[in-house]
Amino acid sequence: MSKQAKNGNSNVREINDDVKSVCGVTSRPSFSFVEKFSSLKYLRWLMIISLPVLVLLTYPVDRADYDLWWQMAHGKYYVTHLTLKMDLSIFSWTPTDPTWIYNTCIGSIVVYLFYNFLGGFGLWLFQWLIFGGVFLSFYLFLRLIKQRLDVNSMTIIAAIAIACSQSCRFYKPELFSALLFCWLLLIFFYIKINRNKYLCYLYPLIFVFWVNLHGAFLVGLVFLVMAFIGEILNRIFFSRESFTTEELTHFGISLVLSCMATLLNPYGIDYLLRLMPLLTNEFSPKDFAGGSPEKLILAYASLWPYLKNMELEFFNVGFVAWIMTVMIISLLSLFVYEVIKKKSFDFTLLLTCAVLYWKGMDTGRTSHFFPLAFFFIFFYWLFYRLKFKNFSIKADIFSSLLFIFFFISVSYFNIRCRTDYHWFGKGIDHFVPVQEVEFLKKFKLNVPLFNDYLVGGYLIWKLYPDYKVFIDPRGGLYGNQVFDDYMDFVVKPKTNEDIHRFTNKYPFKIALIHYRELFLILSFLRDSNEWRLLYFEKNAVILIHKSLFPLVQWEKVNANLSPVRFRQVKNPDILVNVFNFYVRLNPTAGRYIYDIFKNNVSDYFSQKHRTLILMDKQIRLKEKGLLY
Description:
Layout: H1 3-22, H2 33-39, H3 41-58, H4 67-81, H5 105-144, H6 151-163, H7 165-168, H8 174-194, H9 202-210, H10 217-237, H11 245-261, H12 269-280, H13 293-296, H14 315-342, H15 347-362, H16 369-385, H17 393-417, H18 434-443, E1 449-451, H19 456-463, H20 482-490, H21 496-505, E2 510-514, H22 518-526, E3 531-536, E4 540-545, H23 554-558, H24 572-585, H25 587-600, H26 608-623
């Protein structure tokens, strides 16, 4: 073949390749359609848009956010009295522990101001500003290690958002701890990478604010201590990759200054001494039996059992536990790889991973610290220590599929289990006794009030100073006597003698009790000569002692107790609570609530069929006189 013919054939092949390239077809086996799809910038932007939507779906308004109300009551007190210190017992009429100290002065003020000016939406905005600050720390860290926000990093952020949902879903000062912990980590790794030893002196400034925002500043101090110990061990065993002696000196000085900075709080060293038992686990709400309110809201519950329990109702908790477990396995894999390939490892990373994972799984309230630390540790380990270049195309595809799985799982859980949930702060007061409190205000029966543990926080917010509470979610404040008496009183049904003995010790004349304590309510009503039902609404019951009977207009009260009031309610939890009470008063009223539940609750609700069967069974038992 002539040279001219060869050139002609070459030109034809080049033209054909150009045409195929324009048409999206290529004969090169190493560059498939999937590879081209995964490299498109549109996929990245689609995930950037989808990420906040996934986070939004993961964080609806939480129904168990009872702490919010007393936190805002504190904030209101600080603002109106122009102080950062208060007598914590002023909201209660029962004996309290004068040595108990709780300091979130700045945090409570911020939460109160957001709610005061913007209502529930303001609380949602506050939460998302915190989320924005956390995301910014992630983004800056990626820039620090010369990585971009790609498909893989966004999938990891999505996993972190889900894993943090157990403790970051509440609107309260605790969110500040998540934010400041991330910035603590960002500064630490910036020092490790760029060797800017003077940046560690930002730590004391952070702790000046953190100690007045939330008590989890202790986690930040523990991290710094672990980092200091880890870097000393790195210096001893792997000196080439560790801090220098000078850098360790500066880090140690900053650690001491950070500890000293925590003294800059309204209570001084007394506050720190009061928090010490938390580090040694001398006090744990899990020590209380059965019906502990803390267990009901999962704040202190262990996540270990949920590695086995993946029923739909507990899917969210189990999802968190498994994500955290996969995270620790991936970090241990990197650790083993580094030991085998490079014959070295970083003590700080290993120590931080182990402690934060164990504590997060042991106590749900601290579960968010490990996932947040995972982001920094994983990418630092992978790209800085192991010199990993880029994720493969297969990793991009796997991350995309995993992100889709997260999105579908969270959406499915919302549809099947989160019926009638709200977002953007809407409905924040749907599960507290709003109407019940307004009823008390209208009748103005200013006598000692008994209330259950959880609603006490809302009563502080709405009833003080007209009424003071018996107990509230600030459990430590009542640790000297009242808390133990209360737990013994509500943990099981009481006889008339038990109630008389309790009311003799604590002489209250009105009781406002959430349906959660149904058997306690029924124990009061069993003694009809002493106590009588005054009013009830969506969330709680008001009972009145016989000494106040003459002060009540009974005709007016009884006219407001019809089940017709609830015909527009769609929330299954509220309807079940109301049903459980109504059916014990009158099976006909119970049947009416049954019909409301059947018609109003979404058919997608996973427990609808089972709940209707149980309701019907209780109605039939009551009709036969067999239901207590």
